[in-house]
């Protein structure tokens, strides 16, 4: 049996789900362990995977909250009981507060653990787990201390490897078949900042737009919709990225990995480092360095979009260099090798 754990947000959950389902397809017994309050609590019931949801304290980077510490201790206790019951041969953690408790317990008992980092810098949970882990799987090449570099492999970020012809994707989405199409993504929950600042700019430009605003913002954003500016609470990423010519988004690891798989250039507005420890800024800078994306600025956005659309072919080459194609299979092979 293999335990796969990780979640809290889509960036940690979706690669873990992809690997868990791929292991299951190869005949491996898999159990998913997540957090009671993470995104996985809503999505796992329809995943086809056996699963358990545990308490998991979310440690804040800016302030210690006693209740979170208590929940973390409670979660570690619950994880120890579950680990003794399941007795897995290996635990894979994709990080996040949901991916810490059972992986930490497994390490403390001397079991085999692999951890997977999605971003261009190590997250807190991964940093805490990596020292004792059997291996460290990376989505992107990172500079690491020798003790970690010896156990690290760049495998990529597991994504749904599905593409559609552009005209078919646009037809299925009810979008114009001709002309540039901009795709706006603010993460699975949407982004208040992007939802507020982008429409006044983009609606003044001669481009079609598909804007994923997030479920919580849909009602308030709907009045902005017209034939050329489409609003959606959530979009199917492979379909939307197959349809689009240019992405405008935050710089979450999952969004960027999917964009790279689809060779979809991006204009990026990463979260402030004070909110995520600098992970999105590091992601954005790496993708810009590789030539697949540019860092956004609201006051310069019309000119940035015009320049990006003129240079799409070169930007696509940069994205192709970062494509995670085959990442799921590579990580599954490593898990089976270790287990």
Automatic annotation (TrEMBL):
Tell me if Transcription regulation is a UniProt keyword of this record.
no
- One family from Pfam that matches here is Glyco_tran_28_C
Q: Please state what the protein is called.
A: UDP-N-acetylglucosamine--N-acetylmuramyl-(pentapeptide) pyrophosphoryl-undecaprenol N-acetylglucosamine transferase
- Report the EC number(s), separated by commas if there are several: 2.4.1.227
Q: Which residues are involved in binding UDP-N-acetyl-alpha-D-glucosamine?
A: 9-11, 119, 160, 188, 280
What broad taxonomic lineage does this protein's source fall under?
Bacteria, Thermotogati, Deinococcota, Deinococci, Thermales
Q: Which organism is it from?
A: Thermus filiformis
Q: Which family does it belong to?
A: Belongs to the glycosyltransferase 28 family. MurG subfamily.
Q: What cellular component terms from Gene Ontology apply here? A: plasma membrane
